[in-house]
Amino acid sequence: MLSWGEITIRLVLAASLGAAVGLERERKDWAAGMRTHMMVCVGASLTTMVSAFGFFDILGTAHVTLDPSRIAAQVISGIGFIGAGTILFLKQGIIKGLTTASGLWTVAAIGLASGSGMYFAAAITTVLAIIILWVLQPLEKRISHLFHKKILRVSLDAAVDPIKFLDKIWKAEKIKLSNFSIEKSDHELTIEMKFKNLHRDSLVTILNEIQKEFQIKKMYWE
């Protein structure tokens, strides 16, 4: 059995490591912030201790065996419910919260390691998680910007023929249209186009050509 001091160390360490990862999410004002990560980590740590040491009093009973990993294993699958709650599907192709969800899953694993007494593994994983979430973010943005497709979203009158509109885009020189989507309602036609490579000068040329034939209600460029 664990001593009271050892139990305290494991739970406090789990709370501290969970808070360290949660502070990075708190910095971006996500719903799953510092306290959420602390609770997940502490809960995972306690679950591990219960799974490993909580049933020692019945081990002497005939036909009873102990599997220390059985309850702890449910944490890994169960944390998916919390992680799913942090994922937001805004629209086709735009999903937010995946990093926070994966962070919660990692924090649960950190709690399991802390609860099982693997202090060094828990601490190293926490450091790596903070590096991945915080330090590597500017590098990720810089790299992804090189492969990021340019998006032009235009809202037109519902009476506009989308084929005629797209034909105008395709005929433009030096324009490589990667893919497009069309959404039509009773009052508005929205066309979203993704380009492999589109410079600002080419964009201005396209818009000037479009406005000669079509009246644009709204426009979004990324």
Structural domains: how many: 2
Main sheet characteristics: 4 strands, antiparallel
Coarse morphology: elongated
Number of helices: 8
Count every beta strand, where a strand is a DSSP E run of 2 or more residues.
6
Q: Give the DSSP E fraction (strand runs of 2 or more residues).
A: 15-25%
SSE order, one letter for each helix or strand: HHHEEHHHEHEEHE
Spatial gap, N to C terminus: 59 Å
Going by helix content, strand content and strand pairing, the class is alpha+beta
| Portion of residues within helices | 55-70%
Rounded radius of gyration (Å): 26 Å
Concise overview:
Keywords: Cell membrane, Membrane, Transmembrane, Transmembrane helix. This protein has 222 residues and is an alpha+beta fold. The protein has eight helices and six strands, in the order H-H-H-E-E-H-H-H-E-H-E-E-H-E.
Which structural traits does this protein have?
222 residues, alpha+beta, Alpha-Beta Plaits, 2 domains, two-stranded antiparallel sheet, 8 helices, 18% strand
Question: What's the helix and strand layout?
Answer:
Layout: H1 4-27, H2 34-53, H3 69-85, E1 88-91, E2 94-96, H4 98-115, H5 119-135, H6 137-147, E3 150-157, H7 162-170, E4 176-184, E5 188-197, H8 200-213, E6 216-221
Helix pairs in contact: 1-2, 1-4, 1-5, 2-3, 2-4, 3-4, 4-5
